[in-house]
């Protein structure tokens, strides 16, 4: 078993892994490139498969203080505004052992950071960029904070543009030709037609908008996914609202008013990392977006990062496995799941973004199936539990 572990990246993946590894008895150092844990990102849906792991860390009450539990995921027509189908979520906790929660990413990150700071086995070094240098019999060598350091194991939780992935031979993230436009607005400024108790997905012509409450219902998170060739980097590129309004001309009143909302939209180029690429080399392994950044159409990127952290910890805890073998077993177990979820997210994208000609057939099929049966199709996803 490793005597110490370095984690590059203090996002959802790195922080969750640090907490799980520290509770399992490993000394952990998180290196985060940014100077602090700022309020980047917007809403996150945390489904029961990941929520169970956070609950087991004892974070349930803190999460519930800032989360909303949606009654349903409701599909509506972006132009008609009419409901196509609603997948009921109120019974998620009974069905899958943890609630379906809606959170602001900054709230989840703050809860994880507070828990990590309270754990004496975790050291956090911010404003510290990690560069992997190599591996020898004594461990993994990295450059961090202007000097060379050595750890038994290095975990790359450094996101979609991962330097650790490049070090172990992985390719760059591939832009998908789609962008996510995001804004968070005070709930009392959102149009009355926008539901506050559920996730609403407005399906348009080759584009869609997802709306749900965050911050215990005080704010509304809006994400519009459109197809455009823009390829900027970073979470916080400002987006001109007129471009977005042009895409949603003719939208139903409530949605049109929401899109016209004054305020600063941010634009994020959606890029993917093929889950079938390299995840591990010796005592270096990847988790989260670094290993398998996926389209957000199933709202599972952070959830997969949390699942990765749980499996990684279980493998490193096995006394019969040298660290590099434990990491290889982690990859063996996680890769098929991450690839399946990424494929399912891609399929959801194709369904959400159907052409106006095909959309009526999609809507009729969804209606005929009904919300309960559509939801049951995701039991494999939300009902996931670790092997072993
Ligand atoms: C529009 C949109 C909506 C989404 N909605 C959902 C959702 O509802 N539910 C869900 O589960 N997922 C969702 N996701 C996906 C989710 O946001 C990501 O999968 C998740 O945040 C990835 O976490 P991470 O820790 O792997 O990476 P990141 O959050 O990118 O964290 C990586 C960290 O590493 C740091 N770093 C980078 N390089 C270095 C280095 N060399 N040294 C040190 N530090 C470094 C970065 O500063 C950063 O803090 C969504 C994504 C998008 C784009």
Report on the structure:
It is a single chain. It contains 14 helices and 19 strands. It is an alpha/beta fold. The chain has a domain at 5-69 and 104-173 and 273-350: FAD/NAD(P)-binding domain. The model has no long low-confidence stretch (mean pLDDT 94). Bound molecules: flavin-adenine dinucleotide. The site of flavin-adenine dinucleotide has 33 residues, from helix 1, strand 3, strand 17, helix 9 and helix 10.
Descriptors:
35% helix; FAD/NAD(P)-binding domain; 14 helices; eight-stranded mixed sheet; six-stranded mixed sheet; alpha/beta; 388 residues; binds flavin-adenine dinucleotide; 19 strands
The shape, in one word, is globular
CATH class of the domain at 5-69 and 104-173 and 273-350: Alpha Beta
Instruction: Find the CATH topology of the domain at 5-69 and 104-173 and 273-350.
Output: FAD/NAD(P)-binding domain
The structure class reads alpha/beta
**Could you name the CATH homologous superfamily of the domain at 5-69 and 104-173 and 273-350?**
FAD/NAD(P)-binding domain
Number of helices: 14
Strand segment tally: 19
Strand order of the largest sheet: 5-4-13-14-15-12-17-16
User: How would you sum up the major sheet?
Assistant: 8 strands, mixed
The proportion of residues in beta strands is: 25-35%
Terminal residue distance: 18 Å
Gyration radius from CA atoms, angstroms: 21 Å
Judging by the overall fold, what is the CATH architecture of the domain at 5-69 and 104-173 and 273-350?
3-Layer(bba) Sandwich
Average residue pLDDT? 94
Helix content: 25-40%
Low-confidence stretches: none
The bound ligands are: flavin-adenine dinucleotide
């Amino acid at each position: 078993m490793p005597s110490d572990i370095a984690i590059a990246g203090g996002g959802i993946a790195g922080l969750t892994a640090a907490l799980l590894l520290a509770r399992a008895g490993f000394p952990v150092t998180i290196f985060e490139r940014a100077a602090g844990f700022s309020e980047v990102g917007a809403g996150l849906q945390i489904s029961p498969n990941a929520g169970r792991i956070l609950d087991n860390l004892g974070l349930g009450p803190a999460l519930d203080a800032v989360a909303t539990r949606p009654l349903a995921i409701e599909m509506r027509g972006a132009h008609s505004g009419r409901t196509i189908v609603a997948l009921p979520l109120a019974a998620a906790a009974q069905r899958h052992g943890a609630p379906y929660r809606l959170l602001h990413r900054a709230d989840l990150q703050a809860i994880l950071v507070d828990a990590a700071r309270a754990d004496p086995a975790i050291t956090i070094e911010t404003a510290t960029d990690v560069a992997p240098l190599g591996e020898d019999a004594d461990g993994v060598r990295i450059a961090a904070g202007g000097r060379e350091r050595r750890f038994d194991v290095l975990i790359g939780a450094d996101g979609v543009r991962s330097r650790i992935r490049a070090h172990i031979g992985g390719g760059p993230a591939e832009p998908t030709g789609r962008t996510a436009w995001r804004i968070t607005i005070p709930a009392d400024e959102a149009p009355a037609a926008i539901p506050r108790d559920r996730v609403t997905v407005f399906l348009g012509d080759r584009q869609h908008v997802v709306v749900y409450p965050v911050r215990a219902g005080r704010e509304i998170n809006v994400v519009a996914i459109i197809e455009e060739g823009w390829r900027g980097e970073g979470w916080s590129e400002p987006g001109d609202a007129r471009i977005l309004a042009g895409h949603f001309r003719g939208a139903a009143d409530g949605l049109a008013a929401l899109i016209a909302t004054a305020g600063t939209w941010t634009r994020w180029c959606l890029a993917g990392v093929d889950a079938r690429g390299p995840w591990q080399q010796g005592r270096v392994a990847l988790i989260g977006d670094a290993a398998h950044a996926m389209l957000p159409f199933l709202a599972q990127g952070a959830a997969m990062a949390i699942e990765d952290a749980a499996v990684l910890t279980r493998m490193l805890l096995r006394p019969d496995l040298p660290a590099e073998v434990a990491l290889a077993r982690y990859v063996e177990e996680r890769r098929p799941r991450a690839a399946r979820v990424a494929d399912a997210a891609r399929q959801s994208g194709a369904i959400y973004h159907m052409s106006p000609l095909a959309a009526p057939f999609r809507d009729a099929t969804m209606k005929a199936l009904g919300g309960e049966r559509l939801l049951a199709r995701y039991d494999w996803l939300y009902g996931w539990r670790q092997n072993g």
